[in-house]
């Protein structure tokens, strides 16, 4: 598969030059792993949804773990870094804490929504899969210089609480966004006003990190 930069995993799979059966397996796995979890999804279920045989799955992926990594590696190695490299330098154009927080919340939440199934799989596998955990945190570690270059100066200039370090700020923002994201996934029948909800999240973050 090609390793070009992309911003949506499902669209990327659709655009790749690969056998039709392989594409069907990847997309079926994306759906089923997100809905039921990697451990609870069998290759028989994947084969049925992809309309292929189990032999076809193992023709392209030696193991079920290889299939999982075929989904997650492009996300960790291309999708997240590409968004990181495009996103972080833009923070410098905002001068106040409310505008910085609004940009981060709105931009990051749209990214999460655009890749909802992939994010569900990644976040659940981070807790149990050593290979995924290692690859993801290697990417996070390599991102630290960019955060220190762009995010830290902007936040300090905007006026965050002096006792907070970058990790605390990130945990506050990510915690709020992911809680809201999972709330919608777990309770899809509850009506939401996304614009209003994100405004409330921004206000909560600002209260938590401002001086």
From TrEMBL:
Q: Which of UniProt's keywords are assigned here?
A: DNA-binding
Q: Name one Pfam family in it.
A: TetR_N
Carries keyword DNA-binding? yes
Domain HTH tetR-type stretches = 19-79
Q: Give the SUPFAM superfamilies listed for this entry.
A: Homeodomain-like
Coiled-coil stretches are none
**What is this protein's record name?**
TetR/AcrR family transcriptional regulator
- Native organism is Loigolactobacillus jiayinensis
Q: What is the lineage of its organism?
A: Bacteria, Bacillati, Bacillota, Bacilli, Lactobacillales
